[in-house]
C-alpha cells in the first residue's frame, strides 16, 4: 500500500500522470453528471424543440471557435517557453483579440444562419450566446500552465463550482421563463463565473496585454497548421449535427442530441483527457526513444482503452432502459440512438490516444493531413447515410468513417513511433461480439427509430 501511495503522491512523471488523469476523470465525470442532472430537469420544464434549437446555436459557436483556433493550448503545453511570462502574455493577448473578433462574427452570422436552417429565433439567440466566446477570450493562461505540469486539481474544482452555479441559474431561469433563453443565459453565467474564479484563485502568472514579436511568430507558426486542422476537426466532431440540422426537424434533432450526449460520454471523456494528459507524456518520455517507454505507453494506452470500451458497452446495453427511466415518453426514440451511437463510436475509441504524439513533437503539419482525411471520411459517410437511410444511416456512417480513416491513423502514429498494432487488434476483436449483441437485443427499437426518422 505504501508503494502505491508513493507512486501516486510522488513527483515523477508517472505520479503526475496518475494524479492529473484522476483529476481529469473526476472533473469530466462531475461535469457530465451535472449536465445530466440539468438535462433531466430541463426536459421537464422545456420541450424537445428547445434542445434542437440550442444544438444549432452550440454547433455554430463551436464551429466559429474551431475555425479560428491557432493552437494556443497545445502551444503552451509543448513549447519550451511555455512557462515564460512574455510568451504567456502574448498568447493571452492573441486569445483576447480572437474572442472579440469571434463575437462580432457571431452577430454577423445570425441572419444567414436563421435563413439556412429556417429558424428565425437564431437571430436573437446567437448574438447573446456569442458572449460566452467573448468572455472566454479573457481566461487566464494559468489554466494551461496547470495542465502543462499536470497539476489540475484546483482547476477541476473551480470548473465544477462554476458549472454548479451555471446549472442552478439555468434551471431557475427555465422554470421562470419556460424559454430557450434560459439555456443561453445559463451558459453566459457559467462562463463568467469560471473566468472570475480562475483569474483570482489560480496561482501563477497574472496576464497583461503584451505582443512580443518572437513569441507571436512562434505561436502563429505552430498554429497555422492547427488552424486548418481544427477546421477539419469541427466537421469530425460537429458535422453530424450540422448535416442533421438540415435533414431533421428540430424535435428529432433534439432527441438525437440527448442520445448522443449519453452515448458519447466515453468518447468525449477520452478526447478531454488525452488532449491534456498525453502531450506531457509524449513530450517527456517519447515512445521512439526506448523500448521501455513504448511498453509503458502500451500499458497506459491499454488501461485507457479498456476503461472506455467497458463504459461504452454499458451504454450500448442499457441505454434504452436509461432513457425510459430518466426521461418521459416524448424522448423514447433517444434510447435506440444511445445503443447505436455507443457501438459505432468504439472504433474511434481504440485509436484515440495516437494523434497527440504529433502535437507533442510539434508536428502540426502531419496532424493537419490526418484531420483532413478523418473529416472527409466523416462528412462523406454521414451524408451518404442520411441521404439513403435517414438518421440510422447517418449514425452508421460515423462508425464507417472511423474504419475508413484508420490507414491515416497508422501513418501518423508510425511516423512518431507510437503505433501499436497488437493493441489495436486485441481491442477490435474484443468489441465486435458485445457490440453485435447489444444491437441484436435492441433491434426492434432500432427498426422503430428508422421508421420514425
Summarize the structure.
The protein is built from 21 helices and no strands.
Task: Give an overview in words.
It contains 21 helices and no strands. It has 453 residues and is an all-alpha fold. The chain has a domain at 248-453.
Topology:
Layout: H1 2-9, H2 13-45, H3 48-67, H4 72-78, H5 85-117, H6 122-129, H7 131-136, H8 142-148, H9 153-177, H10 181-201, H11 213-247, H12 250-263, H13 265-284, H14 291-326, H15 334-344, H16 346-350, H17 356-360, H18 364-404, H19 406-415, H20 421-441, H21 443-452
Helix pairs in contact: 1-2, 2-9, 2-13, 3-5, 3-6, 3-11, 3-12, 4-8, 5-6, 5-11, 9-10, 11-18, 12-15, 13-14, 14-15, 14-20, 15-18, 15-20, 15-21, 18-19
| Proportion of residues in β-strands | under 5%
What's the β-strand tally? Answer: 0
- What is the makeup of the main sheet? none
Q: Uncertain spans, ≥5 residues at pLDDT below 50?
A: none
Q: Overall mean pLDDT score? A: 83
Secondary structure category: mainly alpha
Termini separation comes to 54 Å
Number of helices: 21
Query: What is the chain-wise order of helices and strands?
Result: HHHHHHHHHHHHHHHHHHHHH
Query: Whole-number radius of gyration?
Result: 22 Å
Overall morphology: globular
> Roughly how much helix do the residues carry, as a percent range?
over 70%
Characteristics:
mainly alpha, 83% helix, globular, 453 residues
Amino acid at each position: 500500500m505504501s508503494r502505491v501511495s508513493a507512486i501516486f503522491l510522488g513527483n515523477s512523471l508517472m505520479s503526475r500522470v496518475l494524479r492529473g488523469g484522476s483529476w481529469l476523470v473526476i472533473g469530466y465525470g462531475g461535469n457530465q453528471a451535472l449536465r445530466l442532472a440539468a438535462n433531466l430537469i430541463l426536459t421537464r420544464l422545456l420541450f424537445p424543440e428547445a434542445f434542437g434549437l440550442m444544438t444549432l446555436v452550440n454547433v455554430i459557436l463551436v464551429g466559429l471557435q474551431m475555425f479560428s483556433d491557432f493552437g494556443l493550448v497545445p502551444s503552451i503545453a509543448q513549447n519550451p517557453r511555455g512557462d515564460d511570462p512574455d510568451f504567456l502574455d502574448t498568447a493571452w493577448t492573441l486569445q483576447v483579440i480572437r474572442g472579440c473578433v469571434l463575437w462580432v462574427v457571431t452577430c454577423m452570422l445570425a441572419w444567414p444562419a436563421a435563413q439556412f436552417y429556417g429558424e428565425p429565433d437564431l437571430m436573437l439567440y446567437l448574438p447573446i450566446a456569442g458572449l460566452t466566446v467573448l468572455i472566454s477570450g479573457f481566461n487566464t493562461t494559468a489554466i494551461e500552465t496547470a495542465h502543462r505540469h499536470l497539476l489540475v486539481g484546483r482547476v477541476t474544482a473551480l470548473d465544477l463550482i462554476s458549472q454548479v452555479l451555471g446549472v442552478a441559474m439555468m434551471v431557475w431561469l427555465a422554470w421562470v421563463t419556460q424559454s430557450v433563453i434560459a439555456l443561453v443565459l445559463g451558459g453566459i453565467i457559467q462562463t463568467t463565473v469560471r473566468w472570475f474564479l480562475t483569474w483570482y484563485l489560480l496561482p501563477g502568472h497574472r496576464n497583461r496585454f503584451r505582443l512580443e514579436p518572437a513569441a507571436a511568430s512562434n505561436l502563429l507558426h505552430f498554429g497555422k497548421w492547427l488552424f486548418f486542422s481544427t477546421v477539419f476537426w469541427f466537421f469530425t466532431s460537429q458535422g453530424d449535427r450540422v448535416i442533421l440540422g438540415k435533414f431533421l426537424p428540430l424535435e428529432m434533432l433534439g432527441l438525437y442530441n440527448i442520445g448522443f450526449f449519453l452515448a458519447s460520454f466515453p468518447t468525449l471523456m477520452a478526447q478531454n483527457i488525452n488532449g491534456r494528459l498525453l502531450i506531457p507524456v509524449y513530450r517527456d518520455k517519447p515512445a521512439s526513444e526506448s523500448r521501455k517507454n513504448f511498453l509503458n505507453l502500451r500499458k497506459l494506452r491499454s488501461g485507457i482503452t479498456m476503461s472506455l470500451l467497458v463504459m461504452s458497452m454499458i451504454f450500448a446495453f442499457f441505454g434504452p432502459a436509461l432513457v425510459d427511466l430518466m426521461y418521459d415518453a416524448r424522448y423514447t426514440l433517444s434510447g435506440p440512438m444511445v445503443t447505436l451511437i455507443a457501438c459505432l463510436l468504439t472504433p474511434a475509441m481504440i485509436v484515440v490516444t495516437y494523434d497527440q504524439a504529433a502535437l507533442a513533437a510539434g508536428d502540426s503539419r502531419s496532424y493537419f493531413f490526418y484531420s483532413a482525411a478523418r473529416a472527409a471520411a466523416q462528412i462523406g459517410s454521414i451524408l451518404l447515410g442520411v441521404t439513403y437511410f435517414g438518421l440510422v444511416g447517418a449514425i452508421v456512417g460515423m462508425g464507417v468513417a472511423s474504419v475508413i480513416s484508420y490507414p491515416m491513423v497508422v501513418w501518423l502514429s508510425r511516423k512518431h513511433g507510437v503505433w501499436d498494432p497488437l493493441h489495436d487488434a486485441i481491442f477490435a476483436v474484443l468489441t465486435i461480439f458485445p457490440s453485435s449483441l447489444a444491437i441484436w437485443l435492441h433491434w426492434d427499437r432500432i427498426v422503430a427509430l428508422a421508421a420514425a426518422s
